[in-house]
Design a protein that fits this description.
This protein is α/β, with parallel strands linked by helices and 724 residues long. It contains 24 helices and 24 strands.
Length: 724
């Protein structure tokens, strides 16, 4: 193997955990902090807690066996002749040691050591210090670099990572400048090689603060390149999708007006804009990839329903996917109600179906009889195929992994096994029932058509996220709440007042109101240090203290038919108080429910709290959300509760959630689908996000820019994921 690409065989499996598969990968495995081993501190100036370099002469060294086997050495200052009883000494202690340590720390040897000063049994000491032999004269630190400390894994010494980084820095080809000079100069960026050298082997001791806080110019260059690679990859993903073919949908307006006539509400201006955006996309013969975002209760489902009807009117099928069975069933019930007595066949696909029921539903999809298939992950199964799938609707899209979305997108046209070529290059005809003819579909020279994709999200995306991770999507925003709805009052209440809250809920229920009471656990757990209110115990308590009010329990371990029965009873007001876990977090729509109590609100994320609060306030009655919290709160919990108390604006909440948690947790599985950011922070580095977006639109026209090499530096094997 070429020496330039060599990784020690014994370390390869361990380095793989750090995403280091090749020596060049060490260039982007950047230090997390630095140690100043350039400044020698006198023994008399040592302070407990500091990590320092000291020099001295070994005056004592032996292996000791009590209280445990260890090697102990004592050093004094090089200029100390031992005449003074109060001359400072420093103990070096090793619990794991080898012959080379014993040999180096022989009495009379001059050494330099580095480590953290601790208070020991016999004065100051360093446990397991780094060391090297020196001559008797003090060493000069001039020209030495700060010592990099890298993120590591078990069994990988820091010295090995530093050695590998030094080897990689010697290969000049890997540090080629790929960013054309005009862009680099306009943004005042360091050269790529200078940035890498400054990060791996900095010589300016005064820059340690800027390096560790990632505000150094070298970090600015790395962050910019990372963001630019992300922008370019997203543009490539969009170009890839645009090169695919999709059915061009021309709705007949035969069904959608009939559905609109029976609705009890009219569309808001924002909903109408969203419908217009989606229908315009569907008329094109390239795949729509549109994200429809709107706050909880803003009416995204009706927009999706109108998009689905446009496809059905044109003779196609629609798959409607939700992350949980409860949410999928809510969509099924809502669409069934809206489309009652209209010529639209809905099919339910979920894991809870019996084998016979599932087979029947799959057959309807395959034959084209099911015009809308609604379900969960069951839609991904290989046995599920569609005769003429034209639209995929994904609710709460961030909860699905990239692989899952790709599986559904792969159910492309030619639509089902019955597809037949009608002639070379002129399209595809399908064997369909005589009463449902399908037009010939233009293929642009291809034999498959990808379905259009409409993604719904009730977690509004902050501007910085929209510019980075979602830059490849077209976005429609529903920023209006349907008329007639009352604002939700949010109250923070100590859990010590639980009995008082129960009394208020009891009185409200007796007067016709309905309430959710959400708990973080189903049952009591011995694994938690903190005692939490669990749903089962709370349910038993409320049943006892609320006579003449029906209380029900809902949680994820219940069978699907049991959950459906409880939920239907709540919808029909046969149940007044629903004690639940977070299975009701999204999608549940009960207009009469006007009270929400959330136990241990400090343990929920902002997005969850906002979603749960959004289960009320969906009717004309004034609604209240009570957040019960423990007495001892972490700083993060205090921040979250303060935000959720002060605003009901989903966009403000999403922005604060991003600030508190960072993008990784917010994005969830989507981070597998686009280049993940290892170094840039999209909120703190918003100026670089904007600059990268601007450069990405211009740089492709520069003939000196090697796009392939630039992307290869940051991204590997992401093409398929990007399509999702």
């Amino acid at each position: 193997m070429n020496e330039e690409t060599y990784l020690p065989p014994a370390l390869r499996p361990k380095l793989a955990k750090l995403r280091i598969a090749h020596l060049r990968d060490c260039l982007l495995h950047l230090p997390m902090r630095y140690e100043d081993q350039t400044r020698v501190v006198a023994l008399r100036d040592l302070m407990v807690g500091e990590s320092v370099v000291v020099e001295g002469v070994v005056e004592f060294a032996e292996t000791q066996f009590r209280p445990r086997r260890q090697f102990v050495a004592l050093i004094r200052a090089s200029d100390d002749d031992g005449s003074s009883h109060f001359t400072p000494r420093l103990t070096l202690r090793y619990f794991n040691f080898y012959p080379n340590i014993v040999k180096a720390l022989t009495i009379g040897n001059s050494i330099r050591v580095f480590g953290e000063i601790r208070e020991g049994r016999n004065g100051l000491e360093i446990v397991h210090p780094l060391f090297k032999k020196t001559d008797a004269k003090p060493q000069s630190s001039e020209g030495e670099a700060l010592t990099a400390v890298y993120p590591s894994a078990a069994g990988i010494p820091q010295a090995a990572l530093r050695t590998l980084a030094t080897k990689a820095l010697k290969v000049r080809d890997w540090q080629a400048e790929l960013l054309p000079a005009p862009f680099r100069e306009s943004l005042q960026l360091l050269s790529w090689s200078d940035a890498l050298a400054a990060l791996h082997q900095p010589t300016d001791v005064s820059a340690i603060g800027a390096l560790e806080s990632r505000n150094h110019p070298a970090w600015r260059r790395v962050k910019f390149d990372e963001l630019l690679a992300q922008q370019l990859a997203l543009k490539d993903a969009k170009t890839l999708r645009a090169a695919e073919s999709s059915p061009s949908i021309t709705p007949t307006q035969l069904i959608s007006p009939l559905m609109m006539q029976r609705l009890s509400f009219t569309l808001t201006s924002a909903q109408k804009r969203a419908v217009s955006d989606v229908l315009a996309d569907l008329t094109r013969d390239v795949p729509m990839t549109r994200l429809l975002q709107g706050d909880v209760g803003s009416g995204k489902t009706i927009v999706a329903a109108l998009a689905a009807l446009a496809c059905i009117e044109a003779g196609y099928q629609v798959a409607f996917m939700a992350p949980t069975e409860l949410l999928a069933e809510q969509h099924f019930r809502k669409l069934t109600h809206w489309l009652k007595d209209l010529p639209v066949q809905l099919t339910w696909l979920a894991g809870s179906l019996t084998t016979a029921e599932l087979k029947a539903a799959q057959d309807k999809c395959k034959r084209g009889e099911a015009q809308i298939a609604i379900g969960t992950h069951a839609l991904f199964q290989k046995k599920v195929s569609f005769a003429r799938l034209a639209l995929v609707v994904v609710d709460e899209q961030h909860r699905f992994g990239v692989e899952q979305r790709l599986q559904l997108r792969s159910k492309t046209l030619p639509l089902g096994e019955g597809a037949q070529r009608a002639g070379e290059g002129d399209g595809v005809r399908f064997n369909e029932p005589d009463d449902n003819p399908i037009p010939t579909l233009p293929l642009k020279g291809r034999e498959q058509l990808a379905p259009h994709t409409l993604m719904l999200s009730a977690t509004p995306i902050p501007r910085s996220l929209a510019m980075s991770y979602y830059a490849d999507l077209d976005v429609s925003v529903i920023d209006e709440i349907p008329s007639g709805r009352q604002p939700i009052v949010t109250k923070l209440v100590s859990e010590q007042r639980r009995a008082e809250i129960a009394e208020r809920i009891y009185k409200a229920a007796q007067q016709g109101a309905q309430a959710y009471w959400v708990c973080p656990l189903i049952e009591e757990s011995d694994k938690l240090e903190v005692q939490l209110q669990d749903a089962s115990a709370l349910y038993a308590d409320l049943v006892m203290i609320m006579p003449n009010v029906r209380v029900a329990l809902l949680h994820g371990r219940m069978k699907a038919d049991e959950k459906a029965e409880v939920m239907q009873a709540f919808i029909e007001n046969e149940v007044q108080v629903l004690v639940s876990t977070t299975v009701i977090e999204v999608g549940v729509d009960v207009p009469n429910a006007s009270w929400m109590v959330i136990e241990h609100a400090e343990r929920f994320g902002l997005a969850q709290l906002h979603q749960l609060r959004g289960r009320v306030g969906r009717g004309s009655a004034a609604s209240t959300c009570i957040l019960l919290f423990a007495d001892k709160l972490s700083d993060t919990a205090k921040q979250r509760l303060k935000v959720i108390y002060e605003t009901t604006d989903g966009f403000v909440i999403a922005r604060e959630d991003l600030r508190i948690r960072g993008p990784g947790e917010l994005l969830g599985p989507r981070q597998s689908g686009v280049p993940g950011l290892r170094y840039a922070n999209i909120e703190e580095d918003i100026d670089l996000v904007e600059a990268a977006r601007d450069v990405a639109t211009k740089i492709s026209a520069d003939p000196s820019f090697n796009r392939t090499a630039f992307l290869a530096r940051w991204i590997q094997n992401r093409t398929e994921f990007a399509k999702a």
